[in-house]
Amino acid sequence: GQNIDQPTEMTATEGAIVQINCTYQTSGFNGLFWYQQHAGEAPTFLSYNVLDGLEEKGRFSSFLSLSKGYSYLLLKELQMKDSASYLCAFYNQGGKLIFGQGTELSVKP
Amino acid sequence: NAGVTQTPKFQVLKTGQSMTLQCAQDMNHEYMSWYRQDPGMGLRLIHYSVGAGITDQGEVPNGYNVSRSTTEDFPLRLLSAAPSQTSVYFCASSYGTGSEQYFGPGTRLTVT
User: Fold this and answer.
1) CA-based Rg of chain A, rounded to a whole angstrom?
2) Over 70: is that where the pLDDT of A2 sits?
3) At a CB cut-off of 8 Å and minimum separation 6, what does A55 contact?
4) I need a surface site. Which of A45, A48, B33, B78 has the fewest CB within 10 A?
5) Which site among A20, A48, A55, A97 would you substitute to test the B interface, given the most B Cβ atoms closer than 10 Å to its Cβ?
């Protein structure tokens, strides 16, 4: 079968660094995505990994380990506006984009 | 370039009523999909399409129908609404499998 797991919620302090983990199990794999979703809004794309390693994009970085079925999203220099839900998702071999339940991040002053 | 548009934004239905949620994109994307989002459940795939004339089931297809007669439009039909279909519905599109998906603003549906 296929499964994707991430923590339900996290809390961090403004200016700090936070790492949101995502583990997945699937018989086929075609890339892992991270999306950000503010309350009451649509998800927006953050990053995409298809090979092992780290992808950096400003304050956000995403890491993928294919052998471990593991990814993380790293947010640096946290700002209050980073309070949101962070969703990891993968395309399975059948071409379906499957999402985890999302991690609700609260940034405190 | 409007991106992905959805109508209506809000809808209230009575049990047993039918309706169609509209979705359109102007980016010439081949891949389109419908998700529902419930508290604590993340986004669950209802149906998707890899091109005009081609549709397939996602994780939670029961109670929903789709068709894709044009590249631009991908309507979602609820045949006989049930309270369990109360949810926020998102339509998304992308160039193809493996590409970033662009989401519409969502439709908040309540079935009483």
Assistant:
1) 13
2) no
3) A47, A48, A49, A61, A62, A63
4) A45
5) A97
- A13-71 tens-digit pLDDT: 999 999 999 999 887 777 899 999 999 999 999 999 999 999 999 999 999 999 999 99
DSSP class of residue B100?
Answer: P
Rounded to whole angstroms, how far apart are CA atoms A64 and A70?
A: 6
Which is it for strands B10-13 and B107-111: parallel, antiparallel or unpaired? parallel
Contact criterion met (CB below 8 Å) for A12 and A78:
yes
Min Cα distance B93 → chain A (Å) is 11
**What is the residue-wise DSSP string for B12-32?**
EE-TT--EEEEEEESS--SEE
Nearest to A73 by CA among A2, A7, A3: A7
- Residue B47's closest chain A neighbor by CA? A96
